[in-house]
Amino acid sequence: MSLNIIEAPESDYLYTETSQIKNAGTGLFTAIDIFEEEIVALFKGEIINNQEAEKRALLNEDRYFVNLLDGSIMDSMHTDCFAKYANDAEGLMESSFKNNAIITLDDDNNVCIKAIRNIDAGEEIFCSYGKPYWKKHAN
Questions:
Q1: What are the strands, taking DSSP E only, across 43-132?
Q2: Which tens digit of pLDDT belongs to each residue from 113-135?
Q3: Is-contact 83 43, C-beta < 8 A?
Q4: Residues near 44 by Cβ (< 8 Å), separated by ≥ 6?
Q5: What does the pLDDT look like over 47-64, one tens digit per residue?
Q6: 8 A C-beta contact, residue 52 and residue 29
Q7: What values do phi and psi take at 14, rounded to 5?
Q8: Element (H, E) at 10
Q9: Is the CB of residue 29 less than 8 Å from the CB of residue 14?
Q10: What is the reported pTM?
Q11: Mean local confidence (pLDDT), 66-87
């Protein structure tokens, strides 16, 4: 068992409400203190191939894509998943906030959000989406 796992269902300590970043929509918040290196939330979603991904991208339905190591894509758009609500504080918008988490893999190779510093109860969780995301979704 990994020491950086919070031993509670995500719904016990995570919640969503309007993001503190202007026009960012819904944000992800924590009801408990989270420590540096702890796994905050796991991404869940439909695994799709490149052809399906291209179809969805043409319909502008690719904002919740996560590229997986095997080349497939996870789409969280229509899946209940707290991780998809973490906004990027350092994306295109001017924001006084800084990212406090990263998108990475846990010990079992699940895509997750991991804290890069201690995050206090009540804080919004932010993580970088990467330059390619913002290049595509800059409009």
A1: 46-48, 65-67, 73-75, 101-105, 111-115, 124-125
A2: 999 999 999 999 999 988 888 88
A3: yes
A4: 74, 76, 79, 80, 81, 83
A5: 999 999 999 999 999 989
A6: no
A7: -110, 150
A8: helix 10-13
A9: yes
A10: 0.90
A11: 93
